Amino acid sequence: MFIKPRKLTPDSKIATVSLSSGFVTDVQHRYDAAKRQIRETFGWQVTEAPNAFRGSEYLYRNPQARADDLHWALSNPDIEGIISIIGGDDSVRLLPFLDLDLICNNPKVFMGFSDSTITLMQFLRAGVVAFHGPAMLTDLAEHGGIHPYVRSSVAQTLMGTAPVKFAAAPEWTGQRVEWMDPALQEARRQFEPSEGWVWLQGEGKVSGHTIGGCIEVLDMLNGTPGWPAPELWKGAVLCLETSEEAPPPAQVGYWLRNFGAQGILSHANGLLLARPHRYPPDWIPELYGWVKKVLWEYGREDLPVVANMDFGHTSPQMVMPLGIQTELDVEKRTVRMLEAAVD
């Protein structure tokens, strides 16, 4: 159903793009750390798109320049993959400028999360697999080196041609370290043991292509020409996560109700929810309650739901390919790809 990009190799050339915020110019040391760690870990050569470092003010005022960078990377025959530098909150402004035919005719690995959800969904609309995963300034610039869980997920998903069986991270952290201070770049964060995934409801075994991203960004996309057609949602495994703004559980419930009103929940085959970022402990059961409540409202008590997964605004985060057939086995408690994400 979706075109797969070619796999990355240890000598692949990667372009980095600022499709949202131009914040990278304020934390050059962190970007440099990511670039070094990528080279040491995966062997990739990293180059910057022409406008990536033109600063926050310029990029804010020139959304077309951001889209031009994506087009440049897609059109450049030397570039094999594209990674978002960081998210933001306004890449929805790129929609009038994005060329879906160019994306379709030049399928390449594109990886990012958060506000990059806008671009990820345009790849799916163009019929191309996309990758919800680490950005340059987040897990790829992790203090003291890329986490082994991230290394494994990136290598298996982007450089391997076998389907991946997803696994819960053994540990996680939400600790904040000041990015602006170069002296803290090598200071490792404190991780705590992971409680694992939470299987909220459902039974049996289901499968479908993955689609989704950051739910706040999906809300910005909803109702625009960039919103996926109903056919793209049918039979899908929804993948949803929340940002560092920590929307309250009720708000997440309201957004899910919109999915229900559109018929998306009625036609879904499964739902994967990421670990909510910056949630107080008492919000988590409330969130799960809202999810189950809304699914009940739309007659989907049968829908398999896995929560607390390691994608999105959590560290370490896995790569979640979008547009790939994925299976949820409730009895075995497994989530796995049924096909490779790259050729």
Describe this protein's structure.
- With 343 residues, the chain is α/β, with parallel strands linked by helices.
- The chain has 2 domains: 13-159, Murein tetrapeptidase LD-carboxypeptidase, N-terminal domain (Rossmann fold, 3-Layer(aba) Sandwich), CATH 3.40.50.10740; 171-337, Glucose Oxidase, domain 1 (3-Layer(bba) Sandwich), CATH 3.50.30.
- It is 31% helix and 19% strand.
- The protein has helices at residues 28-42, 56-61, 63-75, 100-105, 117-125, 148-159, 215-221, 230-233, 249-262, 264-267, 283-297; strands at 13-17, 45-48, 81-84, 109-112, 130-132, 171-172, 192-193, 198-201, 205-214, 237-241, 270-274, 305-309, 320-322, 325-329, 334-337.
- The chain has a 7-stranded mixed β-sheet with strand order 8-12-11-10-9-14-15. A 6-stranded mixed β-sheet has the order 2-1-3-4-5-13, sandwiched between helices.
- β1 (13-17), α1 and β2 (45-48) form a beta-alpha-beta unit.
- α9 packs parallel to α11 (283-297).
- The longest helix is centred in the N-terminal third of the chain and has 15 residues, at 28-42.
- The two termini are 14 Å apart.
- Belongs to the peptidase S66 family.
